[in-house]
């Protein structure tokens, strides 16, 4: 029994030491966030009209991944007591408008013809990039 305790402590210590440090939830470096957005936009732009269903699914996933983050921002802004709260609320309202426009662009992907495909997918990609940028701007202000 005496031998088990030190081995248990050693196992816990090794586990803690060997486990890589992970960033806090919602905190990624600006470089990482930019890279992820670039990859998402490039992925959408790479779809051909033949892969329309996959592009639509990818776009919906991008949107559904961002929605809970936007809700989290809403909660943070509602709890904010700083003098900047009114400006944050205005930015959040603009973010929601941009989110709705991006959702419409995602829906247009589903209905795009072969002739309009390139234009429509680039429209969604650009709209998503704007949405992510607006989100990042508010998130950065709240982290300060």
Report on this structure:
The chain has one domain (28-143): Four Helix Bundle (Hemerythrin (Met), subunit A). It is 79% helix and 0% strand. It is built from 5 helices and no strands. Helix 3 (52-79) packs antiparallel against helix 4 and helix 3 runs parallel beside helix 5.
Structure characteristics:
single chain; 144 residues; mainly alpha; 5 helices; 79% helix; 0% strand
Please sum up the structure shown:
With 144 residues, this protein is an all-alpha fold. It contains five helices and no strands.
- Under CATH, the topology can be stated as Four Helix Bundle (Hemerythrin (Met), subunit A)
Shape summary: elongated
User: What number of domains?
Assistant: 1
Low-confidence stretches: 4-26
Ordered list of secondary-structure elements with their pairings:
Blueprint: H1 4-18, H2 30-46, H3 52-79, H4 85-111, H5 117-143
